[in-house]
């Protein structure tokens, strides 16, 4: 039995024991009233296990700068979103302007195409005007 505990202690010091094996080791130490290094070690472990962590109390000043940082981060986020949205709106306005200019260019091109046919009709109208002058002079 002592040999088994010795092997478990060797595994324990190497960090290879399971929780169940550690329970076996510490139960054996409680049962055996042996004085020595292991008993001192066991009492030290028991005192460490008995300690409970205490609540952490941070000074209020540490929270103050964190609150200020959070407010600044929120402000910067809102400002960045506003700036991004504003630039998006400007890009949309510029895009709409370019589309209107393109449409006006097409309209102008088509109007010139239509008026070019009318120019030839204007020339024909002047050809007929000499006959009208002749008739006007005859009637007077």
Provide structural commentary.
- This protein has 140 residues and is an all-alpha fold.
- The protein has 2 domains: 2-50, no CATH class; 76-140.
- The protein has 4 helices and no strands.
- The protein has helices spanning 2-14, 19-31, 37-50, 60-139.
- 0% of the residues are buried.
Counting helices, strands and paired strands, the structural category is: mainly alpha
Q: Which of globular, elongated, flat, extended, rod-shaped describes the shape? A: rod-shaped
Mean pLDDT: 79
Contiguous runs where pLDDT drops below 50 for at least 5 residues: none
Main beta-sheet annotation: none
The total beta strand count reads 0
Number of helices: 4
Please provide the ordered H/E string of secondary-structure elements.
HHHH
The end-to-end distance, rounded to whole angstroms, is 151 Å
| Structural domains: how many | 2
Estimate percent helicity. Answer: over 70%
Radius of gyration: 50 Å
- Proportion in β-strands: under 5%
Which features does this protein show?
mainly alpha, 2 domains, 140 residues, 4 helices
In short:
By secondary structure, the protein is mostly helical. It is 86% helix and 0% strand.
Set down the secondary structure blueprint.
Elements: H1 2-14, H2 19-31, H3 37-50, H4 60-139
